[in-house]
Design brief:
260 residues, alpha+beta, 12 helices, DUF7089
C-alpha cells in the first residue's frame, strides 16, 4: 500500500528546511479516509502511532458520521476535502501520503503540493478543521445555514484559507531561492484566477452552490489572488490573526446577508 517516494532536489531542500524528519510515501490506491486497519500498517514504517481524538461536545448533534468517527479514538488519516496529498503528525516521525490520483498530473504541480505539505507541517498547525475550531465548531454550525455536509465543506474551506494566509508568504519568498517551485505556485494560481473572479455570477445563476464557491475561493488564498465579496474579507491579516472567531463572525454575517 505504501512505497517510499523519491523527491526532487528542490523538494528535498524544502523538506529539510520545514519538516526534516517527515517520511513521504506513494499510495497504491486512492482514498479519502484510510481505514484504521490500513492506517495501522504505517506502524511498520514509523517509530510510533498516536491517534488524535477530540471531545464529543465539539460536534453538533447532526455532524456527518465520518466527522464523528474522526473525532473518536481510531487512527484516522485523510478526510474529505484534504486533496491529493495528506500529511499527519499522528505518527512519529510525521508522514506525507501521495494519493494515487496524482498520476498523470504535471510533475511541477505535484512537487508544489509536496512542498505545501512540508510547509504546513513546519507551521505546527492542526491537521484538520476540527482542531482549528475546537469547541467553537457548533457555533460555526449555527452560523452556516446549510446541511451538515455543506457546513463540513465550508469549515474545511475556511481552515484551508487560514492556512493559505500563512503559507503564501513562504511560497512568495521562493522567487529567488526556489524559482521552479515559485513558478509552479504562480501557475496553479493562474489556473484558478478566472474561475475565482467569476464566482459571484456562478453563484447568482445557480451554477455553483455556496459551499463549492467557498472551497474554491479559500483555495485561492494560498496563491495570493484577489477574491470577490464576500470572500475577500477572508484574505486578510485579521483572519490570520484571529482565526476561528473571525471565521464564525464572517459566516454569521455572510449568511445573514444571503437571507435578506
Amino acid at each position: 500500500m505504501f512505497d517510499s517516494r523519491d523527491l526532487s532536489s528542490p523538494v528535498e531542500r524544502v523538506r529539510d528546511e520545514h519538516a526534516p524528519t517527515a517520511l513521504v510515501f506513494d499510495c497504491e490506491r486512492d482514498f479519502e479516509t484510510l481505514s484504521p486497519s490500513v492506517a495501522s500498517d504505517l506502524g511498520l514504517v514509523v517509530d510510533s502511532l498516536e491517534p488524535a481524538s477530540y471531545p464529543a461536545e465539539w460536534l453538533p448533534a447532526d455532524a456527518p458520521a465520518l466527522l464523528s468517527k474522526y473525532a473518536g479514538s481510531d487512527l484516522t488519516i485523510g478526510m474529505p476535502g484534504d486533496g491529493s496529498i495528506v500529511w499527519t503528525r499522528q505518527t512519529d516521525p510525521p508522514i506525507v501520503l501521495v494519493k494515487a490520483r496524482v498520476e498523470g498530473s504535471p510533475e511541477s504541480f505535484v512537487d508544489f503540493l509536496l512542498t505545501e505539505a512540508f510547509v504546513e507541517l513546519g507551521l505546527d498547525v492542526p491537521e484538520h478543521f476540527l482542531g482549528f475550531f475546537e469547541d467553537d465548531y457548533p457555533d460555526l454550525d449555527r452560523a452556516v445555514d446549510l446541511d451538515p455536509g455543506g457546513t463540513y465543506q465550508v469549515a474545511a474551506a475556511l481552515f484551508d484559507g487560514w492556512l493559505g494566509l500563512q503559507t503564501r508568504e513562504v511560497f512568495a519568498s521562493w522567487t529567488e531561492t526556489n524559482p521552479d517551485l515559485a513558478d509552479a505556485w504562480a501557475d496553479a494560481g493562474t489556473r484558478l484566477e478566472e474561475r475565482v473572479s467569476g464566482l459571484p455570477r456562478a453563484v447568482a445563476r445557480g451554477e455553483t452552490d455556496f459551499a463549492d464557491a467557498a472551497e474554491l475561493a479559500c483555495a485561492a488564498i494560498k496563491h495570493d489572488l484577489e477574491l470577490p465579496a464576500p470572500f475577500d474579507a477572508l484574505a486578510t491579516d485579521a483572519y490570520r490573526d484571529h482565526g476561528p472567531e473571525y471565521a464564525i463572525t464572517w459566516a454569521r454575517k455572510t449568511f445573514d446577508a444571503l437571507a435578506e
